[in-house]
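Box 3.1. Reading complex inputs
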Amino acid sequence: MIDSLNEAVLQAQAAGCSLGELALRQEAAQGLRTREQLEAGLQRALEVMRGAVARGLPGDLRSVSGLVGGDAAKLNRLTGPLSGTLFTEVLAGALAVQEVNAAMGVIVAAPTAGGAGVLPGVLLGLAHRSQVSDAVLVRGLATAGLIGGVVALRASLSGAEGGCQAETGAAAAMAAGAGAEVLGGSPSMAAHAVSLAMQGTLGLVCDPLGGLVEIPCVFRNATGAAIALAAIEMALAGIEFPIPADEVIDTMGEIGRSMDVRYRETAGGGLAATPTGRRLAKERLVQIKRSGKAT
Amino acid sequence: MVSLLDIIGPVMVGPSSSHTAGACRIGLFARALLGGQPEHARVELHGSFARTGQGHGTDRAIAGGLLGFHPDDERLRDSIELAAEAGLDLTFENAKLRGDHHPNTTRISAKRGDRQVSVIGSSIGAGRIVVTAIDGFHVDITGTLPTLVVVAADQPGTVAAVTSTLAEAGGNIATIKVSRRQKGGHAIHIYELDEPVSAEALVALAALPSVQSVRAIARVA
């Protein structure tokens, strides 16, 4: 798998194709999976993403601990300044998927379960508003996969290693690059979208209450999706981020490596260590035991 | 090798690829090693599995794996209740396993009829697992390929006998690892294969004089 987004852009430009198309061609050429198998796998992922958004939007789910659920539905009440726009649809989609995840529903870990809301929120929102076909969306998922692969190889996709910047941050970068391409942006615009999204999540810590993928994870998927949307808008307008994508990704890795362990999924710092964070985690964990939901 | 489908995937029941999907796969592995559904299983949760496993459904994921459910099976959510209905007697306990283990580790001791297995497995991120011990033998199995677990006499020629039987059946070996607890006793052979072994080859392997047991384990990841 390719380990440089700058290099991927050059190759896509030379081949006259999108980053997603390049990713599909390159992996098929390695011989482990055919192009048809790859496209079928991504099509299934797309369908699971759709199912997760649909399952989460009605708002009747609660997480295993009971701490989160029902918030995606609130965005449909047409109360805010952006109600009824693509923006709220994207936020609702991201929240919905993450609420499904927290309730032990079926999602696509893209790149991880903790960041699973961003990509479906953004891509399915764009697809709905701009009438993007499934074939184009599947290629967009390949773009997202290529970007995530570069992040995995150069930095990390694990909150335990790199903080939330490696989970919802990486997901935002993937969604930004894929979204830019799905809407007709060039490979170079997609790479700038990646940089623009990731620069906005650098340093983001992983600080889940009680170590559960609930608070702030659910909300951070929505804000991650908002950052991806901002990056897509800027990149398609021709705005270029001065630091190349590879260097931004390397920076995320470097920050992750130097991040204190309290901020890497251990629930030892950040929001998890606030008085309310500690109290909620303690109360809910005790309740899980009492309710017999788990042993 | 990272595939696009590893980054856009796996499709799984939430909430955590390591605490839920990976945990389920360790349960699936233990079930396959046992050769079917256990009647009893004792699950020891170590490190982060013990600390945050409840909120992540780690216990339900392991129970589901023992029942043969895969990480994308929605029945995982109710697997503790389903295990009781299926006659699987389950106990969970928090434990501090001796030695160096990944923070997300479990030891599953399972019993079915007169067969008993003990498996230590770790969930190492993004749903990937490593099985590090089987019945006290050190192993290193990822579950990403069909795996053959052979316990045989620790004597010269045993590996050759097994590999030539596999070659006759047309099976290609991706990796081999042999380890033993002490010299001259029994050794465990782990063969990771490109394709599953045929039923005939399994019979032929079991009939080899030095072989004590053979288990074929399908891919769990």
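In summary: Chain B has a mean pLDDT of 94.
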